[in-house]
Amino acid sequence: MNTTQRFGLAAGFVVLSGVVSVLAAPSLPDQLVTNWGADGDPRGRMGKTFGLALMPLLMAGLLGLFALIPRIDPLRENIVSFRRYYDWFVVIITGYLGLIHAGIIAFNLGHEFPFTSLVLSGTAILLYYAGVLVTEADRNWFVGIRTPWTLSSEEVWDRTHRLGGRLFKLTAIITAIGLPFGEYAIYFLLVPVLLTSAITVVYSYYLYEQIEGEPDLG
What we know:
Blueprint: H1 3-24, E1 31-36, E2 42-47, H2 48-72, H3 76-81, H4 83-108, H5 115-136, H6 154-177, H7 187-211
Antiparallel strand pairs: 1-2
Helix pairs in contact: 1-2, 1-4, 2-4, 4-5, 5-6, 6-7
């Protein structure tokens, strides 16, 4: 499967989401539940027309952006080296958003279920694959752990992304473990994500100082 086919698959998720919106519209209430609290209780609503159009439009916009990035990145030749992983990330994130959209519609059609669990399950899959992607990503301006230090040093980029890839995968696993914990499940996602972000930033700075930093002349 080449890039065109992979982006075609992602586009299929966008079209399918639009079709589901059109088919479901006559059976849905004028106000849709679109926001849930950590405990799974509905917390927010929006008008049907906007609610049905929002996710397909967001998916289409993201797909266009993802198609543009490899063309405008100043280091776009590096994206070629991990293009397959990049493309599959696009497929997974559009599929994830399509799943959330289908879940919103199903819930508003009367099929009640723990919506937060659906979101966290999809997020765990997305994070795990993000770990795969960053492990494979060469230095570029749009994809990966982009700090001033990773963008300034090839070695800092590579070593930070090897660590970041493991941490993203671990975060995904912890998120999945937290699913049975009800309203506390969200913390099994938020805490590891924040720690991963902090650790990779600090680690990239530390590596840069060790590898590229100027010697202290006293």
